[in-house]
Amino acid sequence: MLQQLITVTELSGSRREIGLAHGRTHALLIQRSLEVYDRLFHDFVGIRWVRARAEAKRFGRMIERGFPEILEEMDAIAEGAGVEPIDILTLNCRSEISLTRASGGCSAFSLVHAGTQWLAQNWDWRTDQLHNVVALRIQGRDAAPLVSVGEAGMVAKIGLNAHGIGVCLNAIRSQTCGEGLPIHVALRKILESPDMESALAVASRDRVCSPAHFLVASASGEAVGLEVHPGEPGRLGAEGGVVTHTNHLYAPDATAQVEDFPRPDSRPRLARLDDLLGQALPAKGPVDERTLFEILADHHGEPLSICRHFNPAQPPEERMETLFGVVMNLTERRLTLRHGKPCETEEALVVAL
What we know:
Strand content: 25-35%
Order of helices and strands: EHHHHHHEEEEEEHHEEEEHHHEEE
Strand order of the largest sheet: 1-4-5-6-7-8-9-10
Largest sheet: 8 strands, mixed
Number of strands: 14
Number of domains: 2
CATH architecture of the largest domain: 4-Layer Sandwich
CATH superfamily of the largest domain: Penicillin V Acylase, Chain A
Number of helices: 11
CATH topology of the largest domain: Penicillin V Acylase, Chain A
Structural class: alpha+beta
């Protein structure tokens, strides 16, 4: 898999100004993302882009109720990229449209060590999205500066803000979809939160319309795993300063309400994360970005490993690979990104707030 070193895209101003700059800067990548998801929707749920756009319209009404100001930014992304607003809405609702039948990978963890709050994950997805990954640093007029790493045209995915609030994402395969914010819109609202209380309220008050896991942490040393869905989210507190998650639900208050259908690699990856964080880290002494990228580059039990490579045993449409690894030092408001598999490069983009 070829890698390319990406740079941070600076966006600032009003919602419209941020969206226009996003769309204009990444117009080609956005158009390519639309093509990727046209194929993906066909592979996973048997629909083409026209049908997906029709399904996305109902989520627009939910966004209007829970986070209306982001719609202006989404419309401006579309204008800047030369596509229709419904295309950007559909792109930002891709999880709700596609994850009823297939889940991505992703292994995430938070760690408090020597007074520093860390948050890290691998993002595993279809290989054809590798070069559509972007890193955005957004300075809006009504929220603190934030950094988000995700797919071009989407309003957010994984990142942190200047208040020291950070969030990671694990996909959950489930047939549940109800009322609430789409996953990627909810992630942006978390990244605009001034404190942990308001970040957690996105899941418990606004709700999220389809299941996922949000690992939310703060520079103050608090971390909570939120297994979100249209009802009250399941909560996973830190044990020994650590929270880990992959792609299955295991908080009792979530599993009592939602049925998920994880792939067989999810539980082995979670067990390996727990083992590495519970035993290896204390023996290694000081923790830094390199230490945590070693965990994200782990191949134990491959092909069911934390760092995921091409697996010919999987059906072609479900072959997920690690597309990037990210380590966030929330205490120092610093995000470090390795684009591509973290085992294959030590080159990194470092963004500080």
